[in-house]
Amino acid sequence: MAFKYAICYHFLNFRAKWLWLILGAFLMQACKSEKKIYKSDCDDDIVFKHISFKTLIDSIERYDQQFVEIDGVYEEGKEESALVSDSLFVDHSSNHAVWVNFSQDCPLYLTGTRQGIFEYNDGKFTQIKNKKITIRGKIDVRHKGHLGSYRGTIDRISFVKL
Fold first, then answer.
1. Which CATH class is domain 37-161?
2. Burial classification of residue 13, based on how many CB atoms lie within 10 Å of its CB (0-12 exposed, 13-18 middle, 19 or more buried)
3. Residue 87: half-sphere exposure toward Cβ, Cα within 13 Å
4. What are the CA-CA distances from residue 81 to residues 41, 102, 144 (Å)?
5. Can you give the chain as a three-state secondary structure string?
6. Of the given ranges (7-11, 71-75, 113-117, 157-161), which has the lowest mean pLDDT?
7. What's the whole-number mean pLDDT along residues 114-135?
8. For residue 98, what are the contacts with CB-CB under 8 A and spacing of at least 6?
9. Fewer CB within 10 Å: C terminus or N terminus of the chain?
10. Is there a contact between 99 and 145 (Cβ–Cβ < 8 Å)?
11. Which residue has better confidence, 20 or 61?
């Protein structure tokens, strides 16, 4: 009887090791996904201040007309182009979001190419909806996006990292 349990134990242990090996390989491959960086030559000579999303929302007036770099989740939809916190534990309503104003004056191209961020390529558009991104731009507290419901606007977007 003990022999039967020993064989069963070794068989299950062997399968578990293979499962962990396959899972580990899958996770390592997932972590290797390359970040895509889209840049514009607008504001090349500007130094951007990296601030947290929470800091920006809590004291947006302090950053009015300043060039910042922030991380968040990009949301888009009908009459919506916004950056919200990437935290699951905070309010994502427009009162706690920044309107994102992409401009044709600052076209964004994938680094090393002339592929624009909003161009159709390889049978699809660049997917940024509900993605965590880093963007650089100029804060404007006077313009508050669609229906004036956002904390402010980030204008002159010259950098997007997906």
1. mainly beta
2. exposed
3. 9
4. 22, 9, 11
5. CHHHHHHHHHHHHHHHHHHHHHHHHHHHHHHCCCCCEEECCCCCCCCCEECCHHHHHHCHHHHCCCEEEEEEEEEEECCEEEEECCCCCCCCCHHHCEEECCCCCCCCEECCCCCECCCCECCECCCCCCEEEEEEEEEECCCCCHHHCCCCEEEEEEEEEC
6. 7-11
7. 88
8. 56, 57, 60, 70, 72, 82, 83, 139, 145, 150, 151, 152, 153, 154
9. N
10. yes
11. 61
**Position 68 pLDDT exceeds 90:** yes
CA 162 – CA 151 distance, rounded (Å): 23
CA distance 116 to 55: 30
pLDDT value for 67: 98
Q: How many CB atoms lie within 10 A of CB 137?
A: 27
Q: Which sign does the torsion angle of CA 78, 70, 153, 141 carry?
A: positive
What's the token pair of residue 30? Answer: 């997932």
Look at the block and give the residue holding tokens 């182009």. 81
Question: Residue 80 in contact with residue 93, Cβ under 8 Å?
Answer: no
